[in-house]
Design brief:
The chain has about 240 residues and is α+β, with helices and mostly antiparallel strands. The chain is built from seven helices and eleven strands. It has two domains: about 110 residues, Alpha-Beta Plaits (2-Layer Sandwich); about 110 residues, Roll (Nuclear Transport Factor 2, Chain: A). The longest helix has 22 residues.
């Protein structure tokens, strides 16, 4: 019983030294996206009984400004993590296992618990997510140009036949709001399909059409790299 209750024993060591200028620059770019008041980078080691030694990069962002009060903090963390990794060279992160994003927001020195969170990502998974994000931007580009044939190559066969229905919905948006003029990847998360346990990446995106914003959700298979689910809603 005790073994079930105490499965993971963690020894943690914080290492504030040896943070490179490249890491500081990457952190600055991540902080700029949401207007963080300040940022810092640390290195941390911990050992658990299941995984052994784990080396972590910690990116701390304090008092982010450029989001609405109800904006999901998970989206902020995922895009901050993505931006940080994309602005590093492989040699800068290849010796580390995880990236921890610590977000702290406070008002007059009082921490806002609802907007304070620590989220940890496997660095390899972030790197593997980059081409899947490219799948989403490729889809939206092809969707804008009504390129049916190329769209079907990035959709899972189970939903490829829904292309015409998607185009009909887009035509209605275009007629009301105008053509799509901007794409923004707003966040991602990791999940699995309930029935098969197949790992998927959920990617959220926004497009603007004139005065309208369309919010998309894509589920992408980590194995096939195909889009297996799409949902979207337009707000005027």
């Amino acid at each position: 019983m005790k073994n079930k209750l105490i499965q993971i024993l963690i020894f943690s060591t914080l290492l504030t030294a040896c943070v490179s200028q490249k890491e500081q620059d990457a952190a600055s770019k991540a902080a700029d996206i949401y207007g963080a008041e300040s940022y810092s980078v640390e290195h941390k080691n911990f050992t658990d009984t299941q995984k052994g030694l784990q080396k972590i990069i910690v990116l701390k962002l304090k008092n982010i400004k450029l989001i609405a009060p109800d904006y999901p903090i998970e989206k902020v963390a995922s895009i901050s993590a993505l931006t940080f990794i994309k602005n590093l060279d492989k040699k800068d992160y290849q010796d580390y296992d995880q990236l921890e994003i610590d977000i702290e927001n406070s008002v007059n020195g009082i921490i806002n618990i609802s907007k304070t969170q620590e989220i940890t990502y496997e660095i390899k998974k972030i790197v593997n997510t980059i081409p899947l994000i490219n799948v989403v931007t490729d889809f939206l580009d092809k969707f804008k140009s009504n390129d049916t044939l190329k769209l079907k190559t990035i959709l899972d066969t189970k939903i490829a036949d829904s292309v015409n229905s998607l185009f009909n919905s887009k035509a209605k948006i275009d007629s009301i709001c105008g053509k799509q003029d901007k794409i923004n990847i707003s966040g991602f998360a990791y999940d699995s399909i309930n029935e098969t346990k197949e790992p998927i990446v959920i990617i959220w995106a926004e497009t603007t059409n004139g005065a309208c914003v369309t919010n998309y959700r894509f589920n992408i298979s980590e194995k096939s790299k195909k889009i297996i689910f799409i949902d979207f809603k337009t707000l005027k």
